[in-house]
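Reading is simple: the token line describes the chain's fold. The lines below illustrate.

. . .
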Amino acid sequence: AGQLARASGDAAASPRRRSILRFHDHDEAVQRMINAIEPDSYVRPHRHQDPDKTELFLALQGRACMCRFDDDGRLRQTVEVAAAGPNRGVEIPPGVWHCMVALEPATVLFEVIEGPFTADTHKHYAPWAPAEGSDAGAGFLAALRERIRAGADAG
């Protein structure tokens, strides 16, 4: 529990309201990390393509929602993951526009993604999604959270 508490404490103190604790080097073929995220952290929708990368999230603490979008930015699917179950994990195929939204404070996920990590090609941000740290991004997150609360899983 020490690593989870440290990661969630770092996320709560971070301006981005999230924190990553890596268990890998950037050049490794498999990237493994603890990803702590607070409910008010906006993760800009993105995809892992060119190179294609499959991504896996497992809930270790709290609850989160994976949101999948189509190419036009319409919400097409939501998958809730929770440490208490019943669904503890979600796999995201390459090329899928997605983001994670924490549903509880101190949410901690174990993330696995294909490596190696190269900053220029690791993720491609959705052109229809506002930048992180912007007022528009905060508005996007608020609207998305409302859709999740309403149970909308199709646009």
